[in-house]
Amino acid sequence: MNFQDRTALVTGSAQGIGLEIARQFDTAGARVVIVDLFQEGVDAACKEIAGSVDDERIAGFTCDVADSDSVWALFRSVKGHFGKLDILVNNAGITRDGLFARMTFESWKKVIDVNLTGTYLCCRQGLALLRKSPAGRIVNLSSISANGNIGQANYSASKAGVIGLTKTLALELAHYNMTVNAVAPGFIDTKMTQAVSDEARKHWLDKVPAKRAGTPLDVARAVAFLASDKASYITGEVVEVDGGLHVPKRFPARVEQA
Ligand SMILES: NC(=O)c1ccc[n+]([C@@H]2O[C@H](COP(=O)([O-])OP(=O)(O)OC[C@H]3O[C@@H](n4cnc5c(N)ncnc54)[C@H](O)[C@@H]3O)[C@@H](O)[C@H]2O)c1
After folding, report:
1. C-alpha to C-alpha distance for 15 and 190, rounded to whole angstroms
2. CATH class of domain segment(s) 7-239
3. Does the beta carbon of 126 sit less than 6 angstroms from any atom of ligand 1?
């Protein structure tokens, strides 16, 4: 894939899946905008990808995607720095897991604010720049938890909301030659899933037909494809990157394959 004349912004790219997505864009020649909460993380990611924070193809900005003013300032900085934007990847996301009966309003709101409202704010504020691109792309990070998951009412609702937003924007923005898609990862090895107990980890991995956790690279490759020219006729799609976890099972799990 070639992103040589493209500028790509990835939110939450100081670590994990976002950092790998940024690395893929950089490797394919794009100008890359690293975005995360803290300067230290942003600088470290820029340094890791470019070898130097001053590399002219990489720019890093701090931003809280849940804060409207912060997002407004981010896109003003991107316009000032690169003058254009072709690809927006809404990757920043958090979890605050707990059973619904004990879920506080604060933890509900925090997750919705970052995962769903943050995606809305970046799409809304980034639109003016993306519309000017000859082939604008938005890729949103959802999750297989969008289908429901015990202990994740807030997270599941936010990621289902991301899918609804993705499909609606795909319809509304197609006439700008823009595509809007989502990637829904399953169980991916990052700091987010390191917080999960060993028991829960085993429970999930036992269910994965591929019999392994995913890597950030597995997800980043799907995002890069959807952001590329090769995916110009794909829009409003949700690509599951989960080793087959989402596929309905036809037989009881104990039936051995021949
Ligand atoms: N890891 C998984 O198994 C998995 C599965 C499904 C979906 N996802 C989704 O993929 C995305 C990346 O997940 P990850 O595992 O790399 O997570 P991670 O926790 O390793 O990284 C998330 C990044 O987002 C940043 N961030 C958090 N809140 C932010 C905010 N308000 N503004 C800006 N940046 C913020 C964090 O600082 C961090 O760098 C998330 O949207 C997550 O929900 C992950």
Report:
1. 8
2. alpha beta
3. no
